[in-house]
Amino acid sequence: MKLFKKIAIIGVGLIGGSLGLAIKKKQLADTVIGIGHRQASIDQALRRGAIDQGCLDIEAAQGAGLLILATPVDKILGLIPRLFKIVSSECMVIDVGSTKSEIVKAAEKSGLTFIGCHPLAGMEKRGVAYAKDDIFENSLCLVVAPMKAKRTDIERVREFWKKLGAKTEVMDACMHDRILSFVSHLPHVVAYSLMDCIKPSYLKFAASGLKDTTRIGLSDPLLWRDIFLTNRKELLTSIKDFKASLNRVELLIRNNQSKALAAYLSKSRNKRNAIAH
Amino acid sequence: MKLFKKIAIIGVGLIGGSLGLAIKKKQLADTVIGIGHRQASIDQALRRGAIDQGCLDIEAAQGAGLLILATPVDKILGLIPRLFKIVSSECMVIDVGSTKSEIVKAAEKSGLTFIGCHPLAGMEKRGVAYAKDDIFENSLCLVVAPMKAKRTDIERVREFWKKLGAKTEVMDACMHDRILSFVSHLPHVVAYSLMDCIKPSYLKFAASGLKDTTRIGLSDPLLWRDIFLTNRKELLTSIKDFKASLNRVELLIRNNQSKALAAYLSKSRNKRNAIAH
Questions:
Q1: pLDDT (average), residues A118-146
Q2: In this complex, is the C-beta atom of A121 within 8 Å of any C-beta atom belonging to chain B?
Q3: Is B4-171 a CATH 2.30.30.240 domain?
Q4: Cβ count near B56 (within 10 Å)
Q5: Could you tell me where in chain A the CATH 1.10.3660.10 domains are found?
Q6: What's this model's pTM, rounded to 2 decimal places?
């Protein structure tokens, strides 16, 4: 069943490209238009079959029933005020950005029919070359609607993600940004900081432990800079809480508190065990 | 070529079991004796073909040309003083513990012919069920000899690891413990602390980033407690350095220093890029 006649995707990278591939595989639209700022990415997305047509101009979004903003957060913030002139209120606009408070605030001002989305299905790689049509299967997509959003619009967006194989959970922007600051943004800060403190000459002794722990430190620095800065307040709170946890374990080590240290580590291990490996 | 007539392995878990499998595959000994404190582990090691004979008593190490201590660090420290009555100075004793200063100190006191080893080839799982005959292929084994060790003994041990497919690097105990505190022990402390600070209700929103970053938090708490406590001094230094790195990035985020933050993240990403993914 076609959900939309025309879907436009601004940003044909890993997520935008994967969305194009998945939309076409599931036949959710007649046409998928890809809009990017580099012709090379557009060409690659066309070759991969992620989009039917490509364009460098956001005007190409005109007439779309669904417009997906799949660019980094700061670009989404720059795009939102410019879209009102291009798409009608009939057009459902969604994004896939990693932080939500600033984006939803901008969308509320813009007059667009907007629902924020955050599919928890990224990875440290970027670019349409790594796009796959199944990355949303069995994933979770967080749906963040502005206060004035219509329930029917929220349901339509949830239906869209469901068709792509994702479960959805609706929450407000504030809760989204708080949760993500802990489960995503803080681990990135920690991975980058860990790499920062290790002498380059020690790196050849790195085994799988350090590699796993810092794998997300391979992520795009500019993308993550913008995520950190658009979620500053919550992120600073999560860093504060992390430091308290770190200080506690440090003190147990310093004081040789064998029993309490074992209890701390066991508790953490059990929490980790509760999430899939 | 048989390097030894009889090899005894105390501790037939992941590493001990993998050593047994690899030794037998490469035919480095006539007989491999497994010594453990639980009959179930011994039986499982026998079934897996990791050892030829199993025993609950360390007396079974008598007559071995090579004795491998493949137990957790604190057990190795308990074993060393007891071994002199069992094995002759003809017997080469090696361990596979994760910290070295305390072990080498104990070995120097013991009168054993001892060379410390640390194969960088573990994982968060434990038990002989996960043992594999190829985990040392293309890995790195750190070789840590007491001051009085003979060069011929060091070379014999290096030859042993080379036959198992591992490269070796010789260093002193102090340098070993310093390097490992950064590339292995600190990442474990960080992974356990990260899990500690995250609310249980947030865990269902964990995507691959948090999973990777905290995977080593699945490691055995008692094993790691002993690693932390036997490398306290160096670990506390690495925690201090990590906190300084964390404080720096925190300040950049707090002060909205977009450019400097991007530079910090890029530098970390480039360092991470230098180690295999």
A1: 90
A2: yes
A3: no
A4: 13
A5: 176-273
A6: 0.90
